[in-house]
Amino acid sequence: MIREPAVSGQFYPKDKSELTKMVNGFLASAKNQNIESRIIGLIAPHAGYVFSGQTAAWAYKQIEGKKFDTIFLIGSSHNYPVKGAALWTGGKFSTPLGDINIDKELAEKLLSSKIIQSNNETHMPEHSLEVQLPFLQRTISGDFKIVAILINDIKNYKEIAEIISKTISVSKKKVLLVASTDMTHYPDKKNAETVDKSILDTILKFNPSELIKADERWMSKDIQELHCTLCGLPAVLTVMETSKLLGANKSIIVNYSNSAESKYGDGNRVVGYGAVAFIKVTGNESGAIEVKTEKEFSLTKESQKELLKIARESIEKYLSIGKIPEFSTNNPELINNGAVFVTLEKNHNLRGCIGTTEATMPIYEAVSQLALAAAFEDHRFSPVSKTELKELKIEISVLSPLKKVSSASEIIEGKHGVVVRKGSRSGLFLPQVWEHEELSKKDAFLSELCWQKAGMERDAWKKGDCDIYIFTVLAFKE
Q: Is residue 292 pLDDT above 50, yes or no?
């Protein structure tokens, strides 16, 4: 019995290429926190990708490129009541990205307990585990198997956690636990964010009993339309407890968002989404966590809007009066020098892209000049006309300083932009290029960069005489 996708085409795209592009895009916009400690468990949301996909990507970005033998996916059933725990014992799980095998060995061992029972019917229509799979398929290195479990009652979480942890410990396999849950349903935005912050603060304490108390406390308050704090609370408790039994001793909040932030969202009826990692910190009695993060450029939303306005008005005024317009600003963020790329799209196709890797002028001036260059000086396209203005979409990418690396192994797929240089030849790809399915892997990305952008041999990046630089970008669009 193959478990066919139940919600492809609804919660996420049915087309393989479209799904790959969407997931890659989410991952490219997430940041790897470079958590040096071992990640044992994750919490990831399970709503439609247009709502929670970006936060889910933040969770899975933390395990990108890592190898696991088996993933324990634990969620709650939205369609059937579940007594104890419902274990999938059928065949492969299928997604538009391919099939995933079940770890039959571990599944059979779990069935030796009375509380975990085979129940395939409950899994067939369930979305909470299914929506996690494409992210796993795009981030985990090599093949992996899954164990799929649905739990609806919190009263048995400790017993189930003990069974799972013992089964994993005896197997000696490298396992990742994933709790699938969304957060608050369905208060207004202000109340949702208040409750969600409190619940995440409690999760930081890494104490299941405290989480139960926090849930009870908030649900006893008279908050209009608050249906739950965590729809997958039993799954979260089980993964948290199992992670502790397997040696995890800290939790990290990786990301938070809510449905009101989506263009499809309603601020009066909100669902919250959180990404959390449960980790094992070693060699530090205080339990302090060292999280290494690259210092990346940031701009306020107001600054981003101002730059996009400058880019569009630069093109519009030049087409109208034939002169390069002048701008000024009182925004202190925009008077700093910055390296910028401006990209124009028309009907989702590239219409022009010009930029610089050196910060030689204030950001607002660079955006104006490069918007004009992208519109009228990109030799690959004819100059933009007045009739095209309404169809153009503008994206601005602000670059971090270039960092020379010793080898391509230091490049993180989906995160880094790359510059290659050899003699007088050079080429650059922005991080957004990883979104193209055929360039989503490092070999293809670097080979095409050398060939298409730098005019070098495709394998030039593998040779010692080619310099490689990496950078990150803050990208935003209309």
A: no
The CATH classification number of 16-280 equals 3.40.830.10
CATH node for 301-396: 3.30.700.20
CB atoms within 10 A of CB 444: 14
Peptide bond just before 60 cis, omega within 30 deg? no
> Quick one: which of 152, 78, 89 has its CA closest to 117?
89
Written as one letter, the residue type at 188 is D
Q: Hey, which bits of 129-266 come out as E strands?
A: 145-151, 175-180, 250-258
Is 445 within 8 Å of 273 (Cβ atoms)?
no
Domain boundaries, the chain: 16-280, 301-396, 403-477
Which helix (DSSP H) or strand (DSSP E) does residue 129 occupy? none
The per-residue pLDDT for range 9-18, each reduced to its tens digit, is 999 999 999 9
| Contact call for residues 427 and 47 (beta carbons, < 8 A) | no
Terminal Cα-to-Cα distance of the chain (whole angstroms): 46
- Class in CATH terms, 403-477: alpha beta
* Cα 371 off chain centre by: 29
pLDDT digits 0-9 by tens, 54-100? 999 999 999 999 999 999 999 999 999 999 999 999 999 999 999 99
